[in-house]
Each structure stands twice: as C-alpha cells, then as structure tokens.
Amino acid sequence: MFRGRFVSVTRIAFVIVTVVFVVLAGRELSASIRTASISIVAERIERGETVADDVVTKYALRSVDVVDGHYCRSDIVAAGVTLVLAQLDRQNVNVNYDAWAVAASSARQYLRYALSCMPTNSNFWLRLAAVQSTIAEEPVAIAGMMKRSVVLAPYDQVMVLTRFYFWNDFTDATLTAAKRALDSDLTTMLKLGDRCRVNATIKEISPQLRPIFDQTWTSVGEAATARFRQSCSK
C-alpha cells in the first residue's frame, strides 16, 4: 500500500515538474517570437550594416515591449539597448531638440530597466553614465555609474578602451568626482593594454583629461610607457 502511494506521489511530482517546464518553455518561446524583429534589427546594427533611420526609430519605440513584457533575458534586453542607443545617436540636438530629448529620456529609462535585470553588466553602467551626461551634467551621479562600470570590468581591455572614449568627453567636475576609478582605468590601460590599440585610442586627449593622463603616464614609469614609442604596423 505504501509503495502504491509512493508511486502515485512520484507520478504527481513528475507531472507537476513537466507542466512547469512546458510553461517556462512556452514563455521563452513567446518572448523570442514577440521580440524577434527587435533582435534582428539590433543584430544588423551591431554588424555595421546600413539601417534606415525610420527603421531604427520604429524598432527603438518597440523596445518598450521588452519593459512592458518584463523580459529580462540577456539577449532580448541587450538588443533593446542597441536600438535605443542607435536612436539617440541619430538625433541632433541642434536640429530637433524635442526628438533628441525624447530619445535621450527613452534611452535612460530603458538602460535603468536593463540594469534592473543585469546589475552586474559593466557596459550598461557605462552607457547609462554616457546618456546621463548628455542630458544633464550630474558629476556625482555620473561618477557613481562609471565607478560601477570599472569595478565590474576592471581589466577587460574592450571596456577599458571604450570607457576612455567617454572619460575623454566628461567635464572636469565629473573627472574629479570619479578620479579613483579614472586613475584605475588609465593605469590598467598603460600597464596592460595592447600597445597598438592604446596608441590609437590616445591620439586625441581632451584638455580636461590631459593633466590627469599625463600624471598617470608619469606615475606608471618609463618601463611601462617606453613601449608606446614603438611604431605599429598595419
């Protein structure tokens, strides 16, 4: 009798687990179908293909479906990030301020949602800092985002070099507020970075970043910086 009960309980448990897996699989399939067009357009942008402005606008607006659908799958969220940033990049604040303001606000809102799903994504923190800096210069807030990005990917060369692009564009106030994180990035780049890639990245340094960069260059020492005087062949 006990064996019969055990078999019945096992069968019930199996059925319950099977139903749960089917439901979860169905939700994942539904999410993939509903966001397929967003992912396809995002992939085209990431591959460097030409995508018309109206197409980018159309699918950037559809990124709200990701938020409304509470999709937190990394590939879906990342596709939305690509689209909202592409939409913002294509706006000219001097030509159409209203369109730029809407795109900037949408990008900030979406990135905050992306980080609620993936709070350890260094790139998302960087992008949020960059978007916030275009909307309003809030040194302490932007510095906090950059610090998160550095902490989460301190030695990833792609991220370090990408961050340099944004460090190079920030104001004195933001650079001062994030000095420790900035020093960490510059030191890592000069000590560990690929010589040719770093040389290409530091060709143009903004006036506000130059004193900090020169100080770091001196502090890491001749042994570390001598290699940057060597030429890089294509």
Topology of this protein?
Blueprint: H1 2-34, H2 36-46, H3 53-61, H4 64-68, H5 74-89, H6 97-117, H7 122-135, H8 139-152, H9 157-167, H10 172-177, H11 179-192, H12 195-201, H13 210-220, H14 222-225
Features:
14 helices, 234 residues, single chain, mainly alpha
Number of helices: 14
Q: What fraction of residues sit in β-strands? A: under 5%
Helix content: over 70%
Tell the overall outline: globular
Low-pLDDT residue intervals, each spanning 5 or more residues: 19-33
Q: What integer value in Å does the Rg equal? A: 23 Å
Biggest beta sheet summary: none
How far is it from the N-terminal to the C-terminal residue, by CA?
79 Å
The counted number of beta strands is 0
- Structural category is mainly alpha
Please provide a brief summary of the model.
The chain is mostly helical. Helices cover 75% and strands 0% of the residues. The longest helix is centred in the N-terminal third of the chain and has 33 residues, at 2-34.
Please explain how this structure is put together.
This protein has 234 residues and is mostly helical. 75% of the residues lie in helices and 0% in strands. It contains 14 helices and no strands. The protein has helices spanning 2-34, 36-46, 53-61, 64-68, 74-89, 97-117, 122-135, 139-152, 157-167, 172-177, 179-192, 195-201, 210-220, 222-225. α6 (97-117) packs antiparallel against α7 (122-135). It is globular. Mean pLDDT is 86; it is low at 19-33.
